[in-house]
Write a structure and sequence with these properties.
The protein is of the alpha/beta class. Helices cover 34% and strands 28% of the residues. Helix 4 packs across helix 5. The two termini are 37 Å apart. 33% of the residues are buried. The model has no long low-confidence stretch (mean pLDDT 91).
């Protein structure tokens, strides 16, 4: 289990992570979400032990990660834009990672590269960003690391490669129940396909109430009426409201019972009530904060 307690990190006097607390259990696929500059990338680097906290601790299975080679050897960290030398090849990348991860083999690495359509004989500097991304994702899957941290996992990947990656991550967890994966991404729709938990980073802290807000009374209601109606929803404080003739779509912070109590007397021809998506929840949560 990864445990973050009272974590703070500053750069040149500017606080980036402040009083951050978070627990991620073994076997989880956690989606790390938040606006640009919220602190997601910094948090991943702190978990990986690349950066040292100003205050607070990050532990893996009860042991502090920073300055702990044994714990660091259990973590594979893929940043948004990994550094590679001008002469770097997939062969040298394989040699490098095999030094850090005992389970890493060139044979399996090459097999993963081929599955993702990567030309194993080309140097890294000849690849597009998407091809380099596939190369490092192949390395992450080959590493057998207990913790895999990926920043902007889907950036540069084509639709089929995104599908493969999500399938591979789920299969990885199924075969290795202790493995933990944390993915920071702006592509919330992609995260929703694979993640079983989410952590919203907001101004350097974890919004621990975000998922409870999402899973409680935030519902999308789609209605159709026999004829166009003027309906005053102001007192319901809708987070989103769209009228299109006889059709109405609205997002409300209400229970399903309360929704029926209000709309049933209006005799809708159709009424569909559904949960909002992760992306919608993120947007409406930000809008609700601005009310």
């Amino acid at each position: 289990m990864i445990k973050i307690e009272n974590l703070t990190k500053s750069f040149d006097g500017q606080v980036v992570i402040k009083d951050c607390n978070l627990e991620i259990k073994d076997g989880a696929i956690n989606g790390l979400i938040g606006e640009n500059g919220a602190g997601k990338s910094t948090l991943l680097r702190l978990i990986a032990g690349v950066l040292t906290p100003d205050t607070g601790t990050i532990t893996l299975d009860g042991e502090v990660i920073f300055d702990n080679p044994v714990q660091k050897s259990k973590i594979f960290f893929l940043c948004d834009d990994p550094y590679y030398g001008k002469t770097a090849t997939l062969k040298s990348l394989s040699t490098l990672y095999s030094c850090f991860f005992d389970g890493f083999t060139e044979e399996e690495f090459r097999a993963n590269l081929k599955r993702y359509g990567v030309d194993v004989d080309k140097p890294l500097n000849a690849f597009s960003k998407g091809m380099r991304r596939k190369s490092y994702i192949s390395a992450a899957l080959t590493s057998k690391a207990e913790v895999i941290l990926i920043d902007e996992a889907f950036d540069g990947l084509d639709p089929y490669s995104r599908h493969m990656f999500k399938k591979d991550i789920v299969e990885l967890i199924s075969n290795n129940p202790k493995t933990t994966v944390i993915i920071a991404s702006h592509s919330l729709r992609e995260l929703e396909d694979i993640c079983d938990s989410y952590s919203l980073v907001d101004n350097g802290s974890i919004d621990e109430e975000f998922m409870s807000k999402r899973e409680s009374n935030l519902l999308k209601v789609r209605l159709a009426f026999a004829e166009e109606k003027a309906i005053d929803l102001a007192h319901l404080h809708p987070l989103m409201e769209k009228h299109d003739g006889r059709f109405l779509t609205v997002v409300l912070d209400m229970s399903e019972e309360e929704i029926h109590r209000f709309f049933d007397p209006l005799n809708p021809v159709i009424m569909d009530i559904s949960n909002v998506t992760l992306e919608e929840a993120f947007i409406y949560n930000k809008e609700r904060e601005m009310l």
